[in-house]
Each structure stands twice: as C-alpha cells, then as structure tokens.
Write a structure and sequence with these properties.
It is a single chain. By secondary structure, this protein is α+β, with helices and mostly antiparallel strands. It has 1 helix and 4 strands; from the N terminus they run H-E-E-E-E. The chain has a two-stranded antiparallel ribbon. The two termini are 46 Å apart.
C-alpha cells in the first residue's frame, strides 16, 4: 500500500468518525421547555413561587395564574 492510499484511507476514516460523533454534540446541546402550574391544597394558583432547575441557578417565577415556563438543559 503506497503512502497516497494510506493518506486517503485515513482521511476517509476521519470524515466517517466526524460524521458519527458530530450529531451527538448537537443532541447534548438541546434544551427542553417545562411548563406547569403551582397550586395550593385548595387548587388555588400560587403567585410568585420560585421554580428552579435542580442543581443550577436557572429559575423562574409563577405568574398571577400560578403558571410558569422554564427552559432546562436536556
């Protein structure tokens, strides 16, 4: 096998590996939006409740209807 053939083979292998690994980076980078409603024991909405993503400082506060929406990492 000559050196030009080895270089072409290595290049094709590199392109194949990049094609297989690159999509996983995009999957890890995705985020999810969580929505919900916070209510008390009488099913009344709770206003101004802090909703936090566990283990982060990412958070939001419920609105006048007790509803919230937060974007969290996958």
């Amino acid at each position: 096998m000559n050196s030009l053939t080895c270089v072409k083979l290595r290049f094709r292998l590199l392109v194949l590996l990049m094609g297989l690994l690159l999509p996983t980076v995009f999957i890890w980078g995705q985020s999810v939006t969580i929505t919900g409603k916070v209510v008390d024991s009488n099913d009344e909405p709770l206003v101004g409740v802090s909703v936090l993503e566990l283990g982060t400082t990412n958070g939001t506060v419920t609105d006048i209807n007790g509803q919230f929406s937060i974007v969290v990492s996958n």
